Amino acid sequence: MQSDRLTSNNTRVIQEQLSNSSDFQTHDLTAGNRHFRLYYLNTMIEYAIVQEHIIRPLLVHTDVDIREAVSVLHASETELLTDAITAVIEGKTVVQIEGETTLYIYGTALNKERSINVPVNERVLRGSNEALIENLETNLNLMRKLIATPDLVVKYYHLGRRSNTKIAILYLNSIVNEQIVQELDRRMNSIDIDYVEAPGFIQELVEEKSFSLFPQMLVTERPDRVRSYLMDGKVAILTSGSPDSLILPVSFWAFFQSPDDYQINWLLGSTFRILRVFCFIIAISLPGAYVAMVTFDPRILPFEIALTLQSSMQFIAFPAVLEAISMLLILEILREATIRLPSPIGQTIGVVGGIVIGTVVVQSNLVSNTMVVVVAFTGLASFIIPSYEMSSAARLLPYPFIFMSAILGLIGLEFAYLFVLAHLSRLHMMGVPYFYSGLNAGSIRDTLFRAPLWRLKTRAKESLTRNKVRIRNPRGWEK
Fold first, then answer.
1. CA distance 237 to 244
2. Is the peptide bond prior to 249 cis by the omega test (within 30 degrees of 0)?
3. Domain residues of the chain, as ranges?
């Protein structure tokens, strides 16, 4: 009677902890002289596993210990109801034997996940066509296959009091800087939040400068890219429910690198990387430079160009600063519309809306032809940046440049550049400089441009790695 009361009390406690959920089920069975009760959520378990590997062995092997009878790979024991409740929520089946206080936990979770597909946000011409998915175990499987070494360390965290989100941190033990791992561990363990929506939540909760427009962690969905950064001594953060990985610490220049840079000739790779940096400068300052020259300093332009600008702005009622801000806002509205609408409609709205609005605003003398060209070029320059986070920063930075140029002309533009450079120079991530570390003699070979692979003998200094040598004898065939 006491054991029956214990089993009933356990059922009641688990039911109450699960807020009396209707999908919580118990199953009683008798095998020989033993009575079993199974606890599970019927929406989370694989019925075939429960039937074939738990119930059937218990009914057949009536005189065998449950540890020998049940053949489930993930099995554990506990005497705590809190552990049993957590296991039930995770899709496991808990078995209790009448007369015993030990609870047996078996992994029977139903796994429903999408197949590994091609990267959507980081398409490249050459390289792997596999992308991370929302299942953490599958992502770790991909990384283990790409980095087949016992040196790869995986550490688990559970964040969120209510969501209990599972997070994994990956690094190569013999390469990574121990202080960076310890500092990240301290920050992760200090997070106290109800639920975690990764990777955005983790990025904001871990980074040092929360009010900076510049991303301080690199987000990628490509396993091969995660592997390359791990090989450089960096740390990767993978989260259950997210197809993205966070990489840290990274420098400002990492956001202009693409996997394609290392799959083509180094001269072409360097050219494209310099082009991205140049386009970033164009994206943040071209509208401001236009406003400064038109409003304050038209005399620095060649005479023919000044006449062209004067003729295009002859009947424009709005000042140049309002032209620039309004056209940039229209560009952002069109971009958001193409993203939020379904794909076929979004592409149509983007093309037709851009043509119609551009034609109408010019013909109605609200905006000059030159301003339309400037804004269009600014938008294209921001889209060439490989990182979505850095591209978003490049779309917001033109506004302070425009305001400074409208107030002080080219001097204001120079002040805006100084403010941005000073801010970048002050940024750190895990004690690693964000900007100027990529401009020293040892790192510039793989930041501003891409040197030949046989010249990249050491890892980037920004990682502060213990093992700095990456290539020992790259062209040993040459005698």
1. 9
2. yes
3. 2-106, 136-248, 265-432
